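Section 5: illustrative case.
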């Protein structure tokens, strides 16, 4: 028996061609979106170019304080189910009709106001369509007395200790746990 060994031919050497691009593949470095010098120039130009714009005549039907309060309560109920954090931040806000076209919003803190700014458009868009009054102006007023404070057992004890200092001595003696 004769065995045949297969002969393996070596593949031909194909010269490698390196393809070069005309432009760099990497993106060019874009300038920053905010430039201090550009902002300074824009603000100066903006003050000089005050152009009066004509406001479109939109309906301004009468709405009552009750309409405003009902819409606010419904909005808060909807917000309570969808965004609890924002609801907790703005639930202490007080809305009041100040004039025919003005709504005054009393808020407890500026951080709560920033949370309100996120949902402000949703509320007023819905309210304006509901009452068919599209020229509502909003005024903000800060009132620290609206701030909700968590009253703990320790704070209650401290209040009573101010009235009766003997309670402090009892606390030192018995080491009360108010957690």
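Designed sequence:
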């Amino acid at each position: 028996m004769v065995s045949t060994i297969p002969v393996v031919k070596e593949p031909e050497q194909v010269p490698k061609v390196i393809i070069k691009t005309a432009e760099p593949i990497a993106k060019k470095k874009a300038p920053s979106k905010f430039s201090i010098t550009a902002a300074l120039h824009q603000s100066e130009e903006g003050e000089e170019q005050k152009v009066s714009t004509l406001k479109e005549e939109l309906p301004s039907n009468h709405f009552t304080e009750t309409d405003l309060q009902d819409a606010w309560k419904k909005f808060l109920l909807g917000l309570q189910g969808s965004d609890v954090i924002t609801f907790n931040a703005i639930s202490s806000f007080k809305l009041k009709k100040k004039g025919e076209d003005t709504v005054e919003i009393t808020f407890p803190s500026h951080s709560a106001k920033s949370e309100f700014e996120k949902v402000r458009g949703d509320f007023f868009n819905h309210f304006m369509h509901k009452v068919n009054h599209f020229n509502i102006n909003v005024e903000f007023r800060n009132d620290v007395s609206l701030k909700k404070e968590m009253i703990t057992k320790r704070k209650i004890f401290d209040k009573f200790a101010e009235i009766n200092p003997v309670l402090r001595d009892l606390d030192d003696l018995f080491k009360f746990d108010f957690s």
